[in-house]
Amino acid sequence: MQRLLKSSVIAAACLGVGACATIKAPHYQSSVDNVQALQGSGGKASVGTVKVNEAKAAELNNISLRTNTIESPYGDYAGYLKEALRADLVAAGRYDQNAPRAINAVLTRNRLEAGTDKGEAEVAARFTVTEGGKVLYDKEQVAKHDWESSFMGAVAIPRAVQNYGAAVQKLLVRLFADPDFKKALGG
After folding, report:
1. Residue 89 forms part of a structural domain
2. What's the domain range around 61?
3. Structure confidence by residue, pLDDT tens digits, 73-110
4. What is the pTM of this model?
5. Is residue 104 exposed (0-12), middle (13-18) or buried (19+ Cβ within 10 Å)?
């Protein structure tokens, strides 16, 4: 009987380990809303420094859903945000890597959850626009996004991973629609 109990515990532990996985988040896709918001802006911009808040770096770069770790396809989540900025600027015809005005960001919140009924994501960053060392814009933007989830991990986890990009899109449309941001870009 004890042998059977030990075997059951070992089998359960192996199944638990086997269920753990590392999943790459999908690459960022520009949204129509973001491109339209940027097209109403003035000049072109480059993407400068994008990093995570150093005091919370481990927390901001560690997204896990149930027993799965979700990794950024760009190395870390600062890289994800940087690529999202670049992709939206390119799609709107507003990107110039040599532009004197640079958009910079510090990721301050990065949360993704796959609940049994509802999934939620929250992403926030402090954005600045600089030109020649002068700060033209400095403001934190926050975006929350939710969707229908499921008790079943096989449904909830892929939905959450797919919806992370939508949360980042919402964050950037808030930035791009901000009149102060448009003014800082010369619009």
Report:
1. yes
2. 29-184
3. 999 999 999 999 999 999 999 999 999 999 999 999 99
4. 0.86
5. buried
